[in-house]
Write a structure and sequence with these properties.
88 residues
């Protein structure tokens, strides 16, 4: 351990009135808990983002399909039998 860090940790341990090892274990557990909560938040935000992007993509696809010229003019759609002029 670096001497400056050892001095700082030692001073903190003396200030708290605890021994060095339990203080470091508590500090490590505290950091692990904070990282676990942060990872959970990032995971939940990621899931929400994926769901929203999928919904937006589906809405954009539906809007593009509704406004496409093929769906408005009937081009590319099969003709009903016996209707319309014969194809030349």
């Amino acid at each position: 351990m670096h001497p400056l860090l050892a001095g700082t940790v030692g001073e903190s341990a003396r200030w708290l009135g605890t021994e060095l090892f339990p203080f470091l274990v508590a500090l490590l557990l505290n950091m692990a808990a904070c990282l676990a909560v942060l990872a959970l938040v990032v995971f939940v935000v990621g899931i929400i983002t994926v769901i929203l992007c999928a919904m937006i993509d589906a809405a954009m696809d539906q809007a593009a399909e509704d406004e496409s010229p093929r769906s408005q003019t009937g081009e590319g759609l099969p003709d009903a039998i016996g209707e319309g002029s014969p194809k030349t």
